[in-house]
Amino acid sequence: MRNRAAGALLADVACVILFCAIGRRSHAEGLTVAGVAETAWPFLSGTAVGWLASRAWQRPTSLAPTGLAVWLCTVVVGMALRKATSAGTALSFVAVAFLSTAILLLGWRLGAGALARHRRSL
What we know:
Elements: H1 2-26, H2 33-54, H3 63-84, H4 91-121
C-alpha cells in the first residue's frame, strides 16, 4: 500500500511539473530547473493540500474522491498562491490550467483503473 501511495504521489508531482514545463515552453520562458520550479511551486502546494484533504494515501489511484480533490486543490490553491504573489491568473490561463491538469491528474488515474480492471478480468 505504501508503495502504491508513493507511486501515485510521484505521478501527481510529475503531472504538475509536466504541465508547468509545457506552459513555460509554449510561452518561450525557458526550461531551466529554477524556472520550472518557480512556476510549479504554487501548483505543487495545491497538490499537497489535495493529498492531505482527501487522505489520498488511503485510495491513491481512485478517481473519486482522491483524483477530483487533488485536481481541484492543485488548480484552486495554485491560482490563489499565484494571485497572492502577483503572478499571472488571467482567465484564459485558469481555463487552460483546469483542463490540462484534469487531463493529466485524472487521466493517469483513469488509465490505472482500466489496467486494474483488465488484470482482474484475466
